[in-house]
Design brief:
Shape: globular
Number of helices: 8
Helix content: 25-40%
CATH class: Alpha Beta
CATH topology: Rossmann fold
Order of helices and strands: EEHEHEEHEHEHEEHEHHE
Strand order of the largest sheet: 1-2-11-10-7-3-4-6
Radius of gyration: 17 Å
Strand content: 15-25%
Largest sheet: 8 strands, mixed
CATH architecture: 3-Layer(aba) Sandwich
Length: 255
C-alpha cells in the first residue's frame, strides 16, 4: 500500500510537501483517483458542481481511466448523484486542431467510458478559430466564469517532467510563471509543438488538493532539487501562491 506522510513540519523544503510513495505507479494512480472521486462526491454533497484539473500524457490517461472507474462505481450505487456534474479542465493543451490526434484532450476524453453522463470537458480553442493568445484569453475567461475568483479546484493532478516543468510551465520562462492570468499562451515550449495553452501557476495553486506525479528514475534529479529548496521549479511557486493547499508529491522514488 502507498505510504502517506501527511504531517509536514517547518524547516527544509521537503517538509513543505506531503509524500505519497509506492514502488508501483499503478497503485499511486489508483490512490489519487480514489481521493479525487472522494473530493468530487464532497462537492456534490455541498450541492455544487465539482471542478478538477488533470494532466495529459500517459500518466493523465491512466488517471482519467482510474477516475472513470471509481466514479462509475460510486454513482451507480447512489441515485442521489443522478444529474451531478464534474467539470474537467486541462492543465495544458497543444494548440492544434480539435481533431488532431496529438491533442491531449481527445485522448483523455476517450479515457472516460463509464461515467460520461457526469462529465463536462473544457477544451482549448483550435487554431482555425483564433490565435494562440486569443485561445489563452478564452480559456482564462472560461476559468474565471465557471470556477470563479473565490472558488477553488477540488483537485489538481499534475505530472512533473525531467526538467521540473508542470503543465506547460517551464523553469526559466519568467513571463508565463509570473503571470497572474488564469491561463497563459506558451509560444516557446522546449517540447514540440512550441505553441500551447497552460493554466497559470496562481490558478493551479488555488486548489483544495494538488497531486504532483513524479514517476521514473529520470525525474530524481529534478525532485532532489525541488526538495532541496531549489527555486527554479514552477512547483516551488505553489506554496507561495496557495500556502494552505494540500500539496502531495506522488512518487515511486524513495526520498
Amino acid at each position: 500500500m502507498p505510504s502517506d506522510d501527511s504531517s509536514p513540519q517547518s524547516g527544509s523544503e521537503s517538509t513543505r510537501f506531503q509524500k505519497l510513495f509506492d514502488p508501483s505507479a499503478e497503485q499511486l494512480i489508483q490512490l489519487v483517483a480514489g481521493r479525487t472521486v472522494a473530493a468530487i462526491v464532497h462537492a456534490w454533497h455541498e450541492g455544487r458542481e465539482a471542478q478538477i484539473v488533470i494532466t495529459g500524457g500517459r500518466t493523465g490517461l491512466a488517471i482519467a481511466k482510474g477516475i472513470d472507474v471509481a466514479l462509475f462505481r460510486t454513482t451507480s450505487q447512489d441515485e442521489t448523484f443522478k444529474g451531478a456534474k464534474v467539470r474537467i479542465w486541462l492543465s495544458d493543451e497543444r494548440f492544434l486542431g480539435l481533431d488532431d490526434p496529438e491533442r491531449s484532450d481527445s485522448t483523455l476524453m476517450a479515457g472516460f467510458e463509464r461515467s460520461t453522463s457526469h462529465i463536462l470537458f473544457e477544451r482549448v480553442a483550435e487554431p482555425s478559430t483564433c490565435t494562440l493568445a486569443e485561445a489563452a484569453e478564452k480559456y482564462a475567461s472560461e476559468l474565471d466564469i465557471k470556477v470563479g475568483d473565490t472558488s477553488r479546484f477540488d483537485a489538481v493532478i499534475l505530472s512533473m517532467g525531467e526538467d521540473g516543468h508542470i503543465a506547460s510551465l517551464f523553469p526559466g520562462h519568467t513571463r508565463e510563471l509570473d503571470s497572474m492570468k488564469s491561463a497563459v499562451a506558451v509560444d516557446n515550449s522546449p517540447k514540440p509543438p512550441a505553441e500551447r495553452v497552460s493554466i497559470g501557476v496562481a490558478r493551479l495553486a488555488n486548489a483544495s488538493a494538488i497531486y504532483i506525479f513524479v514517476v521514473g528514475e529520470g525525474k530524481r534529479e529534478a525532485l532532489e532539487e525541488l526538495l532541496g529548496g531549489g527555486q527554479t521549479s514552477p512547483i516551488s511557486l505553489f506554496r507561495e501562491s496557495s500556502p494552505n493547499a494540500s500539496i502531495s508529491i506522488v512518487t515511486d522514488l524513495k526520498f
